[in-house]
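May I ask you for just one protein sequence along with its backbone structure tokens in two labelled lines?

_____
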Amino acid sequence: MTAATGRVPDDLVQPFRIGPFALRGRLVRLGPALDHILSRHDYPEPVAAMLSEAITLAVLLAGALKYDGVFTLQTKGDGPIRLIVADVATDGAVRGYAQYDQKKLDAAIASAADATLAYSVPRLLGGGYIAFTVDQGEDTDRYQGIVELAGATLADCAQHYFRQSEQIQAGIKLAVGQTGPGGAWRSGGLMLQRVPPEGGYSVIADDVEDAWRRAMVLMSSATSTELIDPALSPHRLLFRLFHEDGVRVYTTHPLAARCRCSRERIETILRAFPADELDDMQKEPLTTVTCEFCSRRYTFDADEIGRLAPA
């Protein structure tokens, strides 16, 4: 808790390390930032929950990388939720949105045998892929990893990606929920990675393997309530889980809901439209462009559209 206010820290990434076994981890806690993102849209509860998981997962994965730019997680499938996009900038700006088919969503929920199946990846996202992209600007190559949607949860899909593409041992746990019926959204996440230290292990291989298994068991013991509890600080939760093996925390990284849209960015997008489409826009008194992330509207009159058209 902060000394001045007694308030439990929120909207952050907490890096940590367990014992001498080169086990690195991150704890993510999202509260007001996540609720702000979701409040910009009127998502049905299953869509809001799945988007919350995607945003939390994106923050966890971004924290594992050294980059200066934007990390984007995207899912695309043939289920009721057609598309999810969540991205995290290195300054901690977070945003996300989802596209869905209400009729397919209603049918999927109604036909589910229980609530667990109703909120699963196969039921809501269907068949498709999950992609991870790192964009560090125009003068650098973009890195992208893609893997099929395989598993009941987004955490399962990410772990499948690590097994298939990175050959890195990783464990991920996500939790989302509301403070009450119709209340504010919150989320939490834990990620552990087994990364060999420089110069090799200072302990025997059996000890490292045992430590990894133990850490995974302890991580899995964290309940969803603990992960999102606004009264339980990240430090207390990490101590509760891993204190017997020695857990060391590092500087936290703050997060904030902040969209990168601007009138200038929208103008750049419009300039890329074919000339005939811009001509059609000029025939309308006003053209309104809505940001899919934050729902902010940008309005252009016919003269403004005309000035965007190529000479």
About this structure: The longest strand covers residues 169-178.
